[in-house]
Amino acid sequence: MKFYRAFIRIFNSFVLILIIGVVWVRVFDKDSLSFYMTDTSVGEKLFESRDCFTCHGIGGKDPQVAEYPHLNGQPSTYLHTQIKDIRSGLRSNGMTSIMKVAVDQVRDDELRELARYLNQVE
Fold first, then answer.
1. DSSP 8-state code for residue 104
2. How far is CA 37 from the centre of its chain?
3. Taking residues 13-36, what's their average pLDDT?
4. Whole-number Å distance between alpha carbons of 60 and 44
5. What is the pLDDT of residue 38?
6. Cα–Cα distance for residue pair 86/90, rounded to 1 Å
């Protein structure tokens, strides 16, 4: 009987942790959820319409200047954070002054789509 109660407690704890994890991802961590979403057409269109390819190359694979970063395949949360930091002024090194002008008018949902697209580009 003691084994059964211990098993039930462990099982209930596991289920509770699982539920908390799912709720966290669904409510608070949109980037983790977006990792599993494969439709990147919105981000691709944004990348082209915002002329990001002129500096970073098609799909962020081939920057035009050696100092510009390769964006393809980077983690989407990393890209999203870096762009937000450039836009807010938290990041101001290298060529960020040029990039700041380019991202000032980009909305957060568009940043998320751009980051997801660049993460999936191979």
1. T
2. 12
3. 73
4. 10
5. 63
6. 6
Note the residue count of the chain: 122
Residues near 97 by Cβ (< 8 Å), separated by ≥ 6? none
- Dump the DSSP string for 33-84: HHHT----HHHHHHHHHTTTHHHH-GGGSS-SSTTSPP-TT--HHHHHHHHH
Question: 80: how many CB neighbours lie within 10 A of its CB?
Answer: 23
* pLDDT score at 32: 57
Tokens of 10: 């462990």
Binned at pLDDT 50, 70 and 90, residue 7 comes out as: confident
Q: What is the mean pLDDT of the chain?
A: 85
pLDDT digits (tens, 9 = 90+) for 33-72: 555 556 788 899 999 999 999 999 999 899 988 888 889 9
Structure tokens at 76: 């989407």
Using alpha carbons, list the distances in angstroms from residue 63 to 4, 5, 38, 53: 61, 60, 24, 8
d(C-alpha 62, C-alpha 5), whole Å: 60
